[in-house]
Specification:
Layout: H1 38-49, H2 68-74, E1 80-81, H3 86-91, H4 101-111, H5 114-128, H6 134-159, H7 167-170, H8 184-201, H9 214-228, H10 231-242, E2 269-273, H11 286-290, E3 307-310, H12 311-314, E4 327-328, E5 331-332, E6 338-339, H13 345-349, E7 350-353, E8 371-375, H14 376-391, H15 396-408, H16 422-437, H17 443-449, H18 453-468, H19 486-491
Antiparallel strand pairs: 1-3, 2-8, 3-7, 4-7, 5-6
Helix pairs in contact: 1-5, 1-6, 5-6, 6-8, 6-9, 8-9, 9-10, 10-14, 14-15, 14-16, 15-16
């Protein structure tokens, strides 16, 4: 598929292979003989889920550098990688329009996913035009619209508006069209149309773990509104999610249970990737990415010793915070040796964020603990933020919402200085969100929204330039978005315009 061309007849139909989304065998499938039965519709929607599977190291939620939760944290203060030079490039935000090497490859693999939006739109249209029952069409088109919105959120967060083929282009796949990026207004329309339809048409509870629901669609649109700064709209959505508390969602008493094998399917999770330790493409590799090779877990568990939580950020946690339970500062290795930051190159850089609990059925690097995408605690903190921004100061309700999350972590309520003004409350919220959502890929968008992304990066850059004599350049507001690889701009004949990267 050419960069600027969408081939409508080339519908790739993959089936999900986790325990939640079954495998079905088929041959000689084409748009002309497909979309005839409810099973066909389900298979077509399953093909869209495939792009989000965690086990493919080129997927949206890969545990590798290209993964959204990794790149969303590793360009911030909460996550560092012990591997290769790319750690420096990302952590210190050293990217620009003509950057090369592996970091360019990551940008390329992420930006090219804009083609998913056209693929999903074509799937939606074929579902809506099929002759199966209206009930089935409503369900599966709703899922497809939610998945299109999910990918749209991911792309917008990283790059801003991306090119999207309109229906008339999809109807004429043999003609080359050089697509420009959508305007902000056009992107809003796409996102709101798809996700509002999904909220209307999806069930509150999914038939299988990991499939789209009303709550998941609301959460995706809520995140989009927060990125855009539409705080009044966001507050309405957050309150709609709050109305589902007790009936669908709740705040679990134990933070660490949410990320454990025992906690799979718990009702704090609004959206997750269903994982299976026996299916490599649907396994959670995050534990292996963090785990040192000599860590004394089951002998069959593999550790690659990659990611750490920098010590500076670790030091911002309050004493007694239960969210540190699985953040490891030292251990006794398989040889019985005491390992800490003085004798470990990995621990010298930071603590081990073993957020996902031990899976006794872990197979080598493959864990069956679900990858958590969105949680109910995010709803509580987001609503508190919206109230503060919309009212101009923290209300009793907003303070109470934050304290619910803090109390669950074993901490006392916010003090008077933290709730004295809109500004001090925002500072407290940003720190609380960092502690609550580390390794969940939300830190980058949080820092951007609070106006701290560039500030925090330049503080890191100045510090390492002084201490190690590096020559890193200071970054600017253009770095709130990632660069678009030049090859896409060249192929578009100038239809695609670059983000602001004038070093």
């Amino acid at each position: 598929m050419k960069t600027m061309k969408y081939i409508a007849t080339a519908l790739m139909l993959f089936s999900m292979t986790s325990c939640e989304l079954e495998r079905l065998d088929y041959t000689e499938i084409s748009p002309e003989n497909f979309f005839k039965t409810e099973t066909d519709l389900k298979l077509a929607v399953n093909s869209l889920y495939y792009d989000f599977n965690p086990g493919d190291f080129k997927s949206v939620y890969s545990a590798d550098y290209s993964g959204y939760q990794i790149i969303g944290d590793m360009t911030t203060d909460v996550l560092w990688s012990c591997w290769a030079w790319e750690s420096d490039e990302l952590y210190f935000q050293q990217w620009y329009a003509t950057v090369g090497g592996s970091i360019q490859d990551h940008a390329y693999s992420n930006f090219e996913r804009y083609n998913f939006l056209s693929k999903a739109r074509n799937t939606i249209r074929r579902i809506e035009n099929s002759l199966v029952s209206e009930e089935a069409k409503t369900l599966y088109s709703g899922e497809a619209k939610a998945l299109r919105g999910w990918m749209g959120l991911y792309l917008y967060d990283m790059f801003g508006p991306v090119p999207v083929a309109p229906d008339e282009v999809l109807d004429d796949p043999q003609t080359f069209v050089y697509l420009p990026r959508l305007t902000e207004e056009e992107y809003d329309t796409m996102m709101e149309t798809d996700l509002r339809d999904a909220i209307r048409d999806l069930p509150e509870v999914a038939e299988a773990r990991g499939r789209m629901t009303k709550g998941a669609a609301r959460m995706i649109l809520l995140k989009y509104y927060m990125i855009k700064g539409y705080f009044e709209k966001a507050e309405i959505l957050a309150r709609e999610l709050m109305e589902m508390e007790g009936r669908v969602y709740s705040l679990q008493p134990d933070y660490n249970y949410v990320f454990s094998k025992e906690g799979i399917g718990n009702n704090e999770v609004i959206l997750q990737l269903a994982c299976n330790s026996t299916a490599s493409w649907y396994s959670n590799y995050m534990t292996a990415e963090v785990l040192p090779a000599d860590y004394p877990w089951a002998e069959k568990a593999t550790g690659w010793g990659g990611y750490v939580m920098p010590w500076d950020f670790y030091g911002t946690f309050e004493e007694g915070d239960s969210r540190l339970k699985n953040v490891v500062t030292g251990y006794t290795n398989k040889k019985g040796e005491k390992i800490d930051r003085t004798n470990s190159s990995q621990l010298a850089k930071g603590a081990l964020p073993l957020k996902y609990g031990m899976d006794p059925d872990m197979k080598d690097a493959q864990s069956g603990v679900d990858v958590v995408i969105y949680r109910y605690s995010d709803v509580l903190l987001t609503l508190a933020e919206c109230i503060n921004r919309n009212e101009g100061s923290p209300t009793t309700e907003a303070i109470g919402l934050v304290n619910r999350v803090r109390n669950r972590a074993g901490l006392s309520a916010l003090d008077d200085s933290q709730t004295a003004s809109k500004e001090t409350f925002n500072e407290a919220l940003l720190l609380e969100r960092g502690h609550e959502f580390y390794l969940e890929g939300l830190r980058r968008q949080d820092l951007v929204r609070f106006g701290k992304y560039v500030e925090y990066a330049n503080a890191r850059i100045d510090a390492i330039n002084r201490s190690e004599g590096r020559g890193y350049f200071n970054v600017h507001e253009g770095h709130n978005r990632f660069w678009i690889p030049q090859s896409f701009i060249d192929e578009s004949k100038g239809a695609i315009k670059q983000n602001n990267y004038d070093r």
